[in-house]
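User: Could you check the structure of this?
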Amino acid sequence: MKLLSIAVPCYNSGAYMRRCIDSLLPGGEDVEIIIVNDGSSDNTPDIAEEYRQRFPGIVRVINKENGGHGSAVNAGIEQAGGLYFKVVDSDDWVSQSAYTKILDKLKELLKCGQSIDMMVSNFVYEKEGEKRKKVMKYNRALPQDAIFTWKDVHHFGVGKYMLMHSVIYRTNLLRECGLKLPENTFYVDNIFVFNPLPFVKTMYYLDVNFYRYYIGRADQSVNEQIMIGRIDQQIQVNKLLVDYYVTEKQRIFSNGKVRKYMISYLDIITTVSSVLLIRSGLDENLEKKKELWQYIRSKDKLLWMRLRAGILGNAMNLPGKLGRKISVDGYKICQRIFHFN
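Assistant: Sure, the predicted structure tokens are below.
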């Protein structure tokens, strides 16, 4: 069995996927790189096949009909033969020194007979045109140099939540929790991080800047204008997270730290949905914002009260044009601080 399976979802990625794959190859025989060609119409399948032929013991290729990012991740999980599972998007890459440390630590833990459900590491915003790179670190929230559980987790600061780039999950945990991402939908990486959390018992944080998250292509799904254009998919994911929270409430409520973190995560996601709806300037989207908050209230009134009463929830629901302007100004400040979008 391989130590780590890395799924690389690719859709028309021919122009940049080589940098990603080349950064993963130094993992050698400990790693299987699963290139998932999600119905590309460019030379992506040719490049994938080239790597498969050059590195037959390391690179695998899945060719499938187009189903979106979630569908490609699902295919990777289904086919993964590694003990652990990581997603690296085809326009991103990893740091070599951090990569080596992560693999060494996973091997060390296994050698000592210790298995973890989730490994967390830092990621770097590789934002086009910016010399100073923002690093998302978790050293204040998570213990270091030891296996820990949720009871050992400290407070996550504003904006310091874990993204898909931060986590490596135990492969069977993803299967045991029944993770299946929606197809033909953007922003499902939030579900990938969120849904397994109540099943996670043991964790390890390695304070290394492993994942390099590229932001800068005009057609990227995280471009603000594109996100506004796809706002219905953002809302869909937001609602699915709420639905999951309600469905798994008993499991989530069995651990106060899990509950606190997941509510905080929902707070951030709902804030993003709300502010994008405000930023669009369309009356119909203001109605969608109202409907989203009503949906949360109908699903779980206590959750709604927690989100609505918080600083972010209050900011997103200030009345009138002045209130919406204050909401947007606050969002812009957060953009500058945390470098998202």
